[in-house]
Amino acid sequence: MDRFVYLTFDGLSRGAVYAAFALALVLIWRAARIVNFAQGAMAVAAVYVGYSVTEKTGSYWLGFAASLVFGLLLGIAVEKAVMRFVDHSSPLNGVVVALGLVLIVQGVLGILYGNEYRPVETPFRRDAFEVGGVALLSRYDVFVFAAVGAVVVALTVLFTRTPVGLRMRAAAFAPDVSRLLGVPVGGMLTLGWALAAAVGSLAGMLVVPTELGLHPTAMDVVFVSAFTAAVVGGLDSPIGAVTGGLIVGLLLSYVSGYLGATVAPMAVLLLLVVVLLGRPGGLFSSSKARLA
Amino acid sequence: MKAAGLDEPYQKRTPLLEVEDLTAGYGAAPVLHDVRLTVRPGEIVAVLGANGAGKTTLLRTLSGLVRADHGRIAFDGEELRGVRVEQMVRRGIAHVPEGRGVVTELTVDENLRLGGLWRRDRADAARALSEVYDLFPALAQRRASAGHQLSGGERQMLALGRALIGRPRLLLLDEPSLGLAPMVTAQILALLRDLRERTGLAVLLVEQNVRSALSVADEGVVLSLGRVVTRNSAADLRDDAALRHAYLGF
Predict the structure, then answer these.
(1) Which of residues 172-201 of B touch A (CB under 8 A)?
(2) I need a labelling partner for B45 at 20 to 30 A (CA). Which of B14, B136, B176, B219 fits?
(3) How far apart are CA A179 and CA B151, in angstroms?
(4) How far is Cα A41 from Cα A45, in angstroms, rounded to an integer?
């Protein structure tokens, strides 16, 4: 039982990161109908920048902020310089371009920082508090929950309570109609990429120090889990992304805890297959709304 | 209450929209050829013609969704060609597209507020919003419903109401009667008349339903294969049997 409780908290903590990363994927999917396969590489680039700033200044928080700002700017650059010009006649075009970006970003990072794994510090201790003899969660886990929770709340408020959020949703659902109503659709798209890339960078900053270490391909594994989370939730649904992230986190934690870490990636793929067979639109798909 | 300058009959007013020699289309082969037409403040002009005559393309070209190849589109004396689509609403042009353009994923209230987001005058945007709810009580009751839950008539009211929130001077209205019961169509056309009386709104109305379009319009422009074949008063068009048979099918 103790072990179950521990694995549950551990799973939720990992899941929170996947949730953030899946949320970033969903943001871009909703805005541009592109699955941004380059998101992992972009996030790693932002993490490198963050830890470079931390090394120079000695402040984790300056590095943390720098990473998010760099992520935001990288998102803008990628949309304005690359993705804007992708031909949408086939959905594969965006995917291929994004995969090309992955190679470029990872190559540049390798040139600039080298291809070796670099261990990086967490801002808080990772040993778990014990409550009644059971190890529950660490200070770092609390930080992860707080950071992801803050992002989810902020995005929810942005999209449901502000004029910019209304413009962004309208631009995504009905670009031509939105333009006729004076919405700068291109600008909303850029903003979507910027926000998504910043959220992806946050996920990178949270996950890289825990298990991966800094390396140009550090986020590849996370991307697979987060992509599964996003698909499980239904690519269109932010709530689905968060729920999917937590489900994937728990699954990974239970499977690696009870069956061994080596089978965990298979469990994620199995989940993906089961969801795609049973509910191809994802658990929270809004297909009803779209068909009507 | 009448808007300024509306005391004289509309025929004598300075044109609001003047289209000359407009050629436009999608790619190599133009859909519209040398189209000319004029809309004056407070005037309702019906664009008539068979399927594929270029009626929808004409509206889409005027609002910038389709690029004009050549010709002149003057609105209030200023050239509209090259003006970005998202600027049209700021100039006073509202386009209610074919299929109404309700954002079905958003609620009624969100759709309406979207129509006023560009406005600097927030107080007047809020006033316009409540006027639309007064004009269409059915929408006020369904404020929180998603667009996809609305009936066809409610969607048309929503699209029209959303356009009015921008307090346009020219309304480009594409097939408002499509899929609507005759009663609802009549209501909407009566509303157009009322609006032009009260606010001097000019309307360029694309309609398949020629009878109802001519019942509300002052003038009609008949398009055939992208060319203007006749411009005349609505009354004369109704009486011109040969023309009706040739181009309008009744």
Answers:
(1) none
(2) B136
(3) 24
(4) 6
Can you read off the two tokens belonging to residue A238?
């932010």
Collect all residues with Cβ–Cβ distance below 8 Å to A37 and sequence separation of at least 6. Answer: A95, A98, A99, A101, A102, A223
- Whether B105 sits inside 8 A of A290 (CB atoms) is yes
Any domain includes B148? no
Is there a domain that residue B108 lies in? Answer: no
| Contacts with B85 from chain A: Cβ below 8 Å | 176, 179-180
Both tokens of B165, joined, read 């929130």
Distance between CA atoms of residues B213 and B233, nearest Å? 12
Residue whose entry in the numeric block shows the structure tokens 């992002």: A151
Tokens describing residue B195? 């609006």
Return the CA Rg of chain A: 19
B211 lies in a domain? yes
Which candidate, A51, A73, A72, places its Cα nearest to that of A62? A51
- Which tokens is A270 given? 């199995």
Q: What is the CATH number of the domain that holds B49?
A: 3.40.50.300
| Domain range annotation of chain A | 2-218
Closest CA to A240 of A8, A9, A18: A18
Give ipTM to 2 decimals.
0.91
Sheet holding B17-25, edge to edge: B30-39, B17-25, B68-75, B78-79
What six digits make up the tokens of A239?
């709530």
B88 and A180 within 8 Å at the Cβ level: the answer is yes
Per-residue pLDDT of chain A (292 residues; tens, 9 = 90+): 788 888 999 899 999 999 999 999 999 998 888 899 999 999 999 999 999 999 999 999 999 999 999 999 999 999 999 999 998 888 889 999 999 999 999 999 999 999 888 888 888 888 877 777 777 788 899 999 999 999 999 999 999 999 999 999 999 999 999 999 999 999 999 999 999 999 999 999 999 988 778 999 999 989 999 999 999 998 888 899 999 999 999 999 999 999 988 888 889 999 999 988 988 888 876 544 433 3
Q: B161 pairs with which residues across the strands? A: none
Cα A202 from Cα B220, distance rounded (Å): 60
Alpha-carbon dihedral sign for residues A201, A205, A211, A214:
positive
Q: Any CB–CB contact under 8 A between B88 and chain A?
A: yes
Domain count, chain B: 1
Residues in chain A: 292
